[in-house]
What we know:
The protein has helices spanning about 25-30, 45-55, 70-75, 90-95, 110-120, 120-135, 140-155; strands at about 20, 40, 60, 80-85, 100-105. The protein is mainly α. The strands form 2 sheets. Strands 3-4-5 form a 3-stranded parallel β-sheet, with helices on both faces. A two-stranded parallel sheet has the order 1-2.
Amino acid sequence: KSIASLIPLTQMPGVRLALVGGGPESAIAHGQFAHTNAHFTGVLQGEELIDAYNAADIFVFPSQSETFGLAPVEAMACGLPVVAPFVGGLQETLRHGENSLVYDPNQPDALVNAVMRLRDTPELRQTIAQQAITYASQQSWQASMDQLIAVYSQHVRA
């Protein structure tokens, strides 16, 4: 469901979509994006992953079930503004209008509107990218673990 939310982005002028990763849903995703301009890279690690981040202008993370979301923080460290739903553990990491643009996954056009806003407003994209770098540089494994424990504790109490 989450990856399918990216399909409308393939119709946007000036947008090229690179899908990084793999997993059990890869075959389904290949079918969903078969006649689009999307490019599947497969799983990337190390320098290849850093190169992919550096080749991008925006990082879209459509997952609606993240407990922490390391990939958005990695993208921020590479100077990318993040577009993601404001759900789960991402709520501990993402700051709308500061290091990211967040959207409501229940609003059909929210993802596309966030990407269009960054695509069409280079100043905003640059500002968020700079703040994303600052945020990522302040993260440590201990801080990340503290955030993760806080999220788990909150859900256990609920």
